[in-house]
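Postdoc handover notes: sequence design on the structure in folder B. Input tokens:
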């Protein structure tokens, strides 16, 4: 794209693992089209990063890198807002002759006013599906009240299926601070009517109904899936990635190389979820009872919860890895299904790489993503919990077999291949996301 120089973008991701790479990949899309992008990372993120980035980076405080650690969630929020606002304002002032646009993670909605005060156009970037943003918006407006387990079903005008209580975003995982976390999370939708542009890491055909409803009311654009192997402008060559956990050696890829095609279960529950020993034990023996090969990502802090001698007893069938390049694993011909917490990055990567899913959602958007996986896109199955809220070994074993064996498994594979093709179409020249990114550049960076 032939662009005049001097239109800069300042991008501010939220400093948690699941939020960093979608923003980074969007920055790469903008850079590939001629824009100059400055990525604002916190000192803590920069310290934990495993690899340097090719992007221009400025470091700011998130309020936790000085003094004692915050003692409460509210203190964390207060310090985060003050420190990030100050850091972003300073960078805007530093680049005031060139900067035109601020792109901020929607979980920090107060940055809209910081950007406007600095004379910039502002885009809010939502890192969960558009359908979840729609639910948060209804919660904020009071059109979706707090439901209880006794409620039967919920029907929203913007959601493509009837939901049960268990399909709504959930914050009970956070215990005593559940209401605080819920408020913090659903406020991500508050700028949808206010931002100059509201961006979604999804694509039109994946969420057609909700995107159409939003587009009739607000300046929304789908720009995903921001998965490097699928996105036209990110394909080929080495691409930037931020990992806050140390990667294991790539011996796990060699282990996969000697497995038969479509024979391995890949198991990962992301960077955040902390499980009980009981739940870890159920997963462990569920994998054993499935009698499938498996590769299980268990963060270092969680390794002590594995059943005693589990690794020794299962060395012929599976391997435990502390952290890995998930895209490389999902791309591997040996992987047949993905047992996942249904975080949005993991869900998109599985869709884009053609891997059916076994869903075990825990918090926030994950139950809703699992609903979409099972009942809307029909690319996997959700494991049921028992009366104590535990995913049992019996249910895990049954679900793995359903996704890997028989006609149901064939249906899941056919459907996921269909969505993979539509994702490629959306990000190719003239596709919906490709057109939206170009429109974003013309309208936001150049005011045309």
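Designed sequence:
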């Amino acid at each position: 794209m032939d662009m005049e120089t001097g239109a800069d973008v300042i991008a501010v991701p939220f400093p948690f693992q699941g939020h960093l790479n979608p923003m980074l990949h969007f920055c790469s899309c903008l850079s590939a089209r001629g824009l100059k992008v400055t990525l604002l990372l916190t000192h803590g993120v920069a310290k934990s990063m495993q690899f340097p980035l090719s992007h221009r980076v400025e470091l700011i405080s998130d309020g936790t890198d000085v003094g004692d650690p915050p003692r409460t969630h509210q203190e964390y929020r207060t310090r985060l807002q003050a420190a990030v606002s100050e850091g972003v304002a300073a960078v805007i002032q530093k680049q005031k002759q060139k900067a035109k646009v601020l792109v901020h993670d929607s979980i920090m909605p107060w940055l809209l006013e910081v950007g406007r005060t600095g004379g910039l156009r502002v885009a809010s970037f939502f890192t969960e599906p558009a359908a979840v943003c729609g639910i948060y918006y209804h919660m904020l407006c009071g059109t979706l009240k707090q439901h209880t387990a006794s409620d039967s079903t919920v029907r929203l005008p913007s959601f493509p299926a009837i939901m049960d209580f268990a399909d709504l975003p959930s914050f009970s995982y956070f215990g005593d601070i559940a209401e605080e976390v819920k408020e913090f999370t659903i406020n991500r939708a508050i700028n949808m009517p206010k931002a100059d542009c509201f961006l979604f890491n999804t694509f039109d055909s994946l969420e057609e109904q909700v995107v159409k409803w939003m587009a009739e009311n607000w300046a929304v654009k789908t720009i995903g899936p921001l998965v490097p192997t699928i996105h036209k402008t990110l394909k080929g060559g080495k691409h930037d990635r931020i990992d806050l956990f140390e990667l294991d050696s790539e011996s796990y890829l060699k282990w996969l190389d000697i497995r038969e095609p479509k024979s391995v279960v890949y198991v990962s529950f992301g960077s955040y979820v902390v499980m009980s020993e009981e739940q870890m034990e159920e997963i462990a023996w569920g994998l054993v009872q499935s009698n499938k090969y498996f590769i299980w990502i268990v963060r270092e802090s969680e390794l002590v919860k594995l059943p005693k001698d589990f690794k020794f007893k299962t060395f012929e069938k599976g391997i435990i890895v502390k952290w890995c390049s998930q895209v490389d694993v999902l791309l591997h011909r040996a992987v047949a299904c993905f047992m996942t917490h249904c975080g949005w990055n993991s869900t998109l990567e599985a869709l884009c790489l053609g891997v059916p899913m076994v869903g075990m959602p825990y918090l926030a958007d994950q139950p809703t993503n699992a609903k979409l996986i099972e009942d809307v896109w029909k690319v996997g199955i959700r494991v049921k919990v028992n009366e104590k809220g535990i995913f049992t070994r019996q249910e895990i074993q049954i679900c793995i077999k359903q996704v890997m064996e028989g006609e149901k498994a064939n249906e899941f594979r056919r459907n996921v291949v269909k969505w993979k093709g539509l994702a490629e179409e959306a990000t190719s020249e003239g596709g919906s996301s490709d057109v939206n990114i170009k429109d974003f550049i013309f309208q936001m960076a150049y005011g045309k």
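Context for whoever picks this up: The longest strand covers residues 36-42. Don't rerun without checking with the PI first.
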